[in-house]
Hints:
Helix content is 40%, strand content 17%. The chain is an alpha/beta fold.
Amino acid sequence: MRSLVTGGAGFIGSHLVERLLADGEHVTVLDDLSTGRSRNLDHLIGRADVELRRGSVTDPAAVRQAMDGADRVYHLAAAVGVRLIVDSPLSSMRTNIHGTEMVLEAAHQSGAEVLLASTSEVYGKNTSDLLHEDADRVLGSPLVARWSYSAAKGLDEALAHAYWNELSLPVTIVRLFNTVGPRQSDQYGMVLPRLVGQALRGEALTVYGDGRQTRCFSYVSDVVEAMVALAGEPGAHGSAYNLGGAEEISMLDLARRILAVTGSPSPVDLVPYNLAYGPGFEDMRRRVPDNSRAHALIGYRPSTPLDTVIARVAEHLLDPRSAPSAAVT
Ligand SMILES: NC(=O)c1ccc[n+]([C@@H]2O[C@H](COP(=O)([O-])OP(=O)(O)OC[C@H]3O[C@@H](n4cnc5c(N)ncnc54)[C@H](O)[C@@H]3O)[C@@H](O)[C@H]2O)c1
């Protein structure tokens, strides 16, 4: 099996690449290193079963070349993170809309299957008890930059579904809910690595808003395992699957758990959203996945406890090998 992983130098992508190689696959990575890091793949340089290509999913020639000979493409390349989307909405939308269209079209031309990484952000402000895949989307104004990520990913899903419906492209969509673990950057608004980093440096943990907003975090290895299982399941084609965590936790409680696990004496500071992201910023009060569809098809059950996740993220941040380098050419 030959797979292409777009965004393979990123947080989730690099774990996925390792998982596919462990299965004996040949893997090509296409990544522009905008938020990905070459050091995530340094340990794979020189292997015969992996090819690392630096290029953009918005470049049709780069996508066609990377797709050459691939049986399957995992499309993860995207502008990700609230901070990045709010600061650079135009380039984010170009990547997240045009890039996905390029990948779907190239897969259609070359006959490759597709697994598309979407997001729980598509549900927007829907705060239902359990968000099922058929739940309504509740979005704010399209003029609020924050919603452009949700709008773009929703359009990606619609495009993918149309390729499946009209052109029989085998495509499966996964909606990831706050996936966390080692290698996740703290630079673009990801809460868990940011708070763990603050705790380790002895700085105040900055929790936005009143801190009572809740999320369900899932560990990257649990999610990657489910992505691979779904990609290999023909019965999954044409549908979307939630992949989220099991434990709902408020951001204040998350900060307290991080302090307990790391043994940090740091205080916790509440920071108004408008100071963090500018005036008019909107956030979700809660977001809880219904994972039953993925459980029924592939037995998905997120198993890594949150304290273990926090400990592994802390261990990674303290590891001197997390230092920068350059490997993808
Ligand atoms: N981490 C999460 O909690 C989460 C939640 C929901 C969805 N997702 C989705 O999972 C996927 C991976 O996200 P991640 O958390 O690993 O983020 P990440 O930023 O670490 O990974 C994204 C990767 O895509 C690359 N990339 C960006 N623009 C590109 C372009 N134009 N061409 C080629 N490569 C490009 C980046 O360099 C990076 O390596 C994304 O599609 C994201 O929307 C992630």
